[in-house]
């Protein structure tokens, strides 16, 4: 498997893990304009009434306004459908971005044996 060149930003990828009581979506890479639409399209398929969705942002290295827009769009869709959307493992820069924009308070922290809190 080839390694990305030094200085090349990691490609955005998603890994979905469905558990009996929660679906965890692990995000890796830069959450920007191109990847925001991917995140929205893939997670939108998982939204259903009474579901619990957790976005694990451990591997997210950068987020721009379009990335935030994708997360907020998912929040609105989830809320409308009666689905619970949570964010976990926000790195310091991502946490600061969500805090500055007053969006951090929209998301309930998730904590259980399978999730690491920052």
Notable features of this structure?
disordered C terminus, Transcription Regulator spoIIAA, 118 residues, 4-stranded mixed sheet, globular, alpha/beta, 32% helix
Q: Mean pLDDT, as a whole number?
A: 85
Task: Provide the number of structural domains.
Answer: 1
Query: Helix segment count?
Result: 3
* CATH T-level topology: Transcription Regulator spoIIAA
Strand content: 25-35%
* Percentage of residues assigned to helices: 25-40%
- Name the CATH class: Alpha Beta
Count of strand segments: 4
Give Rg in angstroms.
14 Å
Output the strand order for the largest sheet.
1-2-3-4
Low-confidence regions: 111-118
Please identify, by name, the CATH architecture.
2-Layer Sandwich
CATH superfamily: STAS domain
Largest sheet: 4 strands, mixed
Describe this structure in words.
- The chain contains three helices and four strands.
- By secondary structure, it is an alpha/beta fold.
- The protein has a single domain, classed as STAS domain (Transcription Regulator spoIIAA, 2-Layer Sandwich), CATH 3.30.750.24.
- It has a four-stranded mixed sheet with strand order 1-2-3-4, with helices on both faces.
- Helix 2 links the parallel strand 3 and strand 4.
- Helix 1 packs parallel to helix 2 (65-81).
- The relative contact order is 0.17.
Would you summarize the structure shown here?
Helix content is 32%, strand content 27%. With 118 residues, it is α/β, with parallel strands linked by helices. It has a four-stranded mixed sheet with strand order 1-2-3-4, with helices on both faces.
């Amino acid at each position: 498997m080839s390694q990305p060149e030094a200085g090349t930003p990691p490609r955005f990828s998603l890994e979905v893990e469905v558990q009996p009581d929660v679906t965890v979506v692990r995000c890796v890479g830069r959450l920007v304009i191109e990847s925001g639409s991917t995140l929205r399209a893939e997670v939108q398929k998982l939204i259903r009434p009474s579901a619990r969705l957790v976005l694990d942002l451990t591997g997210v290295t950068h987020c721009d306004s379009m990335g935030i827009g994708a997360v907020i769009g998912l929040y609105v869709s989830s809320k409308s459908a009666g689905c619970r959307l949570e964010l976990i493992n926000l790195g310091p820069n991502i946490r600061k971005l969500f805090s500055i924009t007053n969006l951090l308070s929209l998301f309930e922290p998730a904590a259980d044996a399978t999730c690491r809190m920052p």
